[in-house]
Write a structure and sequence with these properties.
The complex is a heterodimer. Chain A is an alpha/beta fold. Chain A is built from 17 helices and 21 strands. Chain A has a domain of 191 residues: FAD/NAD(P)-binding domain. Chain A is 34% helix and 22% strand. In chain B, the strands form two sheets. Chain B has a seven-stranded mixed beta sheet, sandwiched between helices. Chain B has a four-stranded antiparallel beta sheet with strand order 1-2-3-4. The relative contact order of chain B is 0.08. The chains are: A alpha/beta, B alpha/beta.
């Protein structure tokens, strides 16, 4: 008895010490997405509906693509559609959260300011107030407060923070030469036009040339391309590798050279120009999502798990679903369907797709991501350049963090840091499994151990640390994929079902989601005989 | 050499023990006189240090060093006389009295400088406290030598006693007077020097319990007391370290009388040569000697354009000095002051030093203080009725977080808060030392939809300083002002708006929230002057 008491005592003491040693006095949780629900859809364990509602169009998926399709319908005055989303909240990987301190992103958090050629995004940003006027030439003029406030980014290296992402301090003449050489190569592609006058690289991808010259870039990895160009500078390679991890969840060796150059070339209008400025909101692209969702609110339902999409007659597509909250099955009979979900779900929900496109899913590689929102009572003390919007650690597998309060001008006091960590291993399935098996504590440890290097006193200031595990965060533009037959076919309608998702671009960018959403919506409007100029 | 001295000294002791009056008053025994002579040297140094500290501190804080040193020395020496006189009233237990006396000197002397600094910063009682402390230390120090001589008297021949004690007393004073300016002040500063010598005094007390062993009863209690005093002074030393870093004392030309780290900035107030200065993050905000020039120039031109202005906005200006000038206009009904740091605005309202200078402006019932980042506040608050005049008094754009308060977006938010014919005056750094920065601010204000009239004046502690007067509506430069100001007259008002060639307008980029060109410009330009 005594001995047991003693043991219990020491155990309690041990726990106490452990708590003290770790100094953690904050809570947090894994906030989603609903892995279990997603897997139930995949494994078809949901009850089937007996009654079906008639509607012209069902949009399956309330992420950026699905909401953009709805936005297009609304713009046309077409309202006989139903948008359904699996999660309790719309937005997909662009969704956002909010607490007493600030709104914050849970995923995508910016768009580069579009040039006038990207009419759809300019139109959207005009609606949102981020474009306040147009020049005589028709170029959009962006509201000052919509653009990322300086300082935009900083990098932590050799014990302190430095302004900018490329570490200039200590760069050799050769480093600088290769840096200039790389951007000269980019400028060649910025200036390049095909016979029809199309650019090699622009946003969205559908406006890029598919001529053999740019296509040739896709047949090699970014790393092979850099090797060929003699670009070996460690600093330059770090910057480019960071760009790949940041935008695609890939590494130099697993990124198509086309995508590697796209990242830089598509953000410039003319050679020698600065990159387009960045537009960001405290809640990231959640601001766009909220704007889009507002327009289609009456026709939007969340918490609806679609289990099957099947054409039952030449003019009827049956959509079977399950209302998660009410716990009952429901369904629609539609003339057309927009499947605005990821490819891996399409294969499970649309049974006929597998037989028609057997090569389908295996062509797609999707990077899992971990995103953490760290609510801070007070900002950490630090050495060197002060807090920027985007804060990157040079010697880290993570991508650093963005500061939610930066765009609301708050430079003091409580804030929320949104931390990003992509799983970039070559075997994306194994990486997904790895993330799926990480509990909150493991995730929190990963985040804190990474940030501790730059912020030894961070933990003391944490009020809360929440985690999002994105199993399928970003489609990876690996070599030989962007111009592949599988990707081309995935965009084609299948038995009255139209597809819209960034997966179909091979690039997980908001602009791609929007472009596919508009395309799918306009395909259907055309099929219904509505004649209207394209917004794309 | 040292050996020779020791031999000579011990010879003296032998002489003493041979004398018939060798027995002490309480208990016969052999004292180690030569070592006691060393304590004379140490206490003499300590005594002079406190005097020098008090004199230096008074001349730093009050100015007029001849007057301060003269009065401090006068009070100190006469108090020593008093102490010597009082010594005759001490009869019994001289050894124990001596140890207690050392502890008293240690405490009063050691803490004199920190007490005086705090008093200067927080009370009106600096002068009485200064002379009171100097008199107290003088009296206590005046007791030391007579007491020690009486303790040694039974053992040492009187002629030797007088000769050796006084010699060491004067040599100790010499050592202190050389060490103080050469080593102590530059290396440790006033507060730490004072505390260190307090500890030295207490150590003498501790050592004396050993040297005066034959004359002491319960030594344990005495030693405990000594240890307590040393601990107390040591704590003071640690605290002083926190109050001001040694490196910091080297940065500021004058003595630091107040220092505080707030979540937003480091506030430091220094005092010297009859003036005091406020620094935020090391940047001078004003010097009390000439701030009236700056604040008259900031405030009155805008009022000249809007006589009878009722609603006034101040962004920054947490020292209350601009508000002091604003309240000279009796028609003002409401002043809204938005300053980031509550510690700063509280200090301006409560600290006598600042409250005297700003004439209690922060406590005026017409003044509402809001502690928030001015940009966040302007973004979130849209007053129902626009302000008639506004004053923008931020620190120079040396960081991005301050630089954002000089952007087109900030000035657009400001315009939204003003009446359509409202007027704003903006502190805009030096058009001479930072000419590009100055004209960048002017161009940025224009780009935000204002008409501007830049102006400048000379503020000796800053240099040539500039402001931008602006209004959404067209206006002419002001020509008249209040009659009872110290700097501004109708004549100086006109002169402020004329720019010489070396400060002429330069075509500059606009400082936008997304580029913040001003921060880089400002850093480049000021690098040449620092």
């Amino acid at each position: 008895m005594k001995r047991r008491h003693f043991l219990a005592g020491t155990a309690a003491l041990g726990l106490g010490c452990d708590r003290l040693r770790r100094g953690r006095r904050f809570g947090g949780e894994i906030v989603g997405p609903s892995l279990e629900l997603g897997h139930r859809v995949r494994d078809i364990q949901l009850p089937q509906p007996t009654q079906f509602e008639d509607v012209d169009v069902v949009i399956v998926g309330g992420g950026a693509a699905g909401l953009s399709a709805a936005w297009r319908f609304e713009g046309q005055g077409f309202k006989n559609y139903q948008l359904v989303e699996l999660e309790p909240q719309v937005g997909g990987t662009s969704r956002s959260g909010r607490n007493g301190i600030s709104a914050f992103p849970w995923g995508a958090h910016y768009v580069p300011a579009p040039n006038r050629e990207n009419r759809a995004l300019v139109k959207l940003l005009k609606e949102m107030g981020a474009v306040e006027a147009f020049t005589e030439q028709g170029d959009p003029v962006f509201a000052e407060e919509a653009l990322v406030r300086a300082p935009e980014e900083r990098v932590y290296a050799s014990g302190q923070w430095w302004e900018g992402l490329y570490l200039r301090a200590g760069a050799s003449a050769e480093d600088e030469r290769q840096y200039r050489l790389f951007f000269a190569e980019v400028d060649v592609w910025v200036a390049w036009r095909d016979r029809e006058g199309r650019r090699a690289f622009t946003i969205p991808r559908s406006k890029c040339s598919d001529a053999p010259e740019p296509q040739a870039l896709d047949r090699q990895s970014f790393q092979q391309w850099l090797d060929k160009k003699g670009l070996t500078s460690e600093r330059l390679r770090w910057l480019l590798d960071y760009a790949c991890r940041d935008d695609y969840g890939t590494r130099l060796a697993t990124t198509s050279a086309w995508a590697g150059i796209f990242y830089f070339a598509a953000r410039k209008l003319n050679p020698g120009e600065e990159s387009r400025p960045i537009i960001a909101w405290p809640e990231g692209n959640g601001a766009i999502i909220d704007h889009l969702a507002k327009a289609c609110q009456p026709r939007l339902r969340t918490g609806i798990a679609v289990s099957q999409i099947l054409r039952v007659s030449p003019e009827t597509i049956q959509v079977s679903a399950f209302d998660v909250k009410a716990g009952k099955a429901l369904g629609w009979k539609a003339k057309r369907v927009i499947f605005a979900g990821p490819q891996h779900l399409a294969q499970h929900i649309i049974p006929t797709l597998w037989t028609e496109r057997p090569e389908g899913i295996s062509a797609f590689h999707v990077a899992p991501w971990l995103v953490a929102n760290i609510s801070l009572r007070e900002r950490p003390k630090e050495v060197g350049m002060a807090l920027a919007w985007d804060n990157v650690l040079r010697d880290s597998a993570g991508l650093g963090y963005v500061v939610a309060t930066h765009q609301s001008y708050r430079d003091h006091g409580p804030t929320v840091l949104t931390y990003y960590y992509p799983f970039t291993g070559a075997d994306d399935r194994a990486e997904r499994l790895r993330l799926q098996n990480m509990d909150w504590q493991t995730c929190a440890n990963l985040v804190l151990e990474d940030l501790r290097k730059a912020h030894p006193d961070l933990e003391r200031n944490i009020a809360r640390l929440d985690i999002m595990r994105w199993g399928h965060a970003m489609v990876q533009p690996r070599p030989n994929f962007l111009f592949s037959e599988a990707l081309r076919r995935a965009k084609e309608p299948h038995q009255g079902i139209h597809f819209a998702h960034t997966d179909l671009s091979g690039l997980a960018l908001f602009e791609e989601a929007q472009d596919h959403g508009l395309r799918a919506a306009e395909e259907i409007l055309a099929a219904f005989g509505t004649i209207s100029p394209s917004w794309r | 050499m040292a050996d020779a001295k020791a031999a000579k000294a011990s010879a003296g002791v032998r002489d003493a023990s041979a004398s018939p009056r060798a027995a002490g008053p309480s208990q016969p025994g052999l004292l180690r006189a030569p070592l006691l002579f060393i304590t004379v040297f140490v206490i003499a140094s300590c005594g002079l240090i406190y005097e020098l500290v008090a004199g230096t501190l008074a001349s730093y804080l009050l100015g007029d060093s001849v007057m301060q040193f003269s009065t401090v020395i006068g009070v100190y020496l006469s108090a020593m006389g008093l102490g010597s006189y009082l010594s005759k009233h001490l009869h019994r237990g001289l050894a124990q009295r001596f140890v207690d006396l050392e502890l008293a000197v240690a405490l009063v002397g050691g803490f004199s400088a920190p007490i005086l600094f705090q008093a200067f910063a927080h009370t009106h009682a600096f002068r009485p406290l200064l002379y009171g402390l100097v008199a107290a230390i003088g009296t206590l120090v005046g007791l030391e030598i007579p007491l020690l001589m009486r303790i040694l008297k039974p053992q040492v021949a009187f002629k030797d006693l007088i000769a050796q004690v006084l010699t060491l007393d004067y040599i100790g004073a010499l050592a202190a007077s050389i060490l103080f300016p050469v080593l102590l002040m530059p290396k440790f500063g006033l507060v730490r020097t004072c505390l260190i010598f307090g500890i030295l005094n207490a150590l003498v007390g501790f050592w004396s319990t050993h040297l005066l062993k034959p004359l002491l009863g319960n030594r344990r209690m005495l030693r405990v007391r000594c240890a307590a005093v040393i601990l107390l002074l040591g704590t003071g030393l640690v605290f002083a370290q926190r109050f001001t870093l040694m490196v910091e004392e080297e940065i500021y030309a004058d003595e630091i009388v107040y220092a505080k780290d707030t979540p937003y900035q480091r506030i430091v107030i220094t005092h010297g040569r009859g003036s005091f200065q406020l620094f935020l993050n090391g940047g001078l905000q004003f010097a009390s000697a000439d701030e009236y020039r700056y604040h008259e120039a900031l405030v009155h031109p805008a009022f000249a354009l809007k006589p009878g202005a009722k609603r006034v906005l101040v962004c920054g200006g947490g020292d209350g000095l601009a508000v002091r000038e604003i309240l000279k206009h009796p028609e003002v009904e409401k002043v809204t002051l938005v300053d980031l740091d509550p510690a700063m605005t509280t200090l301006a309202a409560k600290m006598p030093l600042l409250r005297d200078l700003n004439k209690g402006s922060m406590l005026d019932r017409r003044v509402e203080v809001i502690n928030q980042d001015a940009m966040v506040w302007l973004n979130e608050h849209r007053p129902a009725e626009g302000y008639d005049v506004a004053f923008i008094d931020f620190p120079d754009p040396h960081t991005y977080s301050v630089g954002k308060l000089y952007t087109t977006h900030f000035y657009k938010l400001l315009r939204r808060a003003l009446r359509p014919d409202g007027v704003v005056a903006i502190q805009s750094t030096s058009p001479l030392m930072a000419r590009k920065s100055f004209w960048c601010i002017n161009a940025t204000v224009e780009a935000a939809g204002f008409q501007t009239k830049p102006y400048h004046l000379s503020v000796p502690s800053f240099g040539v300083w500039g402001f931008v007067l602006a209004s959404p509506a067209p206006f002419d430069a002001p020509v008249t002002t209040l009659t009872d100001l110290r700097y501004l007259t109708d004549g100086t008002m006109a002169a402020m708006f004329a720019f010489p060639h070396d400060m002429d307008r330069l075509p500059m980029d606009i400082n936008r929230l997304d580029n913040q060109v001003l921060v880089h410009l400002y850093a480049q330009e000021w690098k040449r002057w620092s």
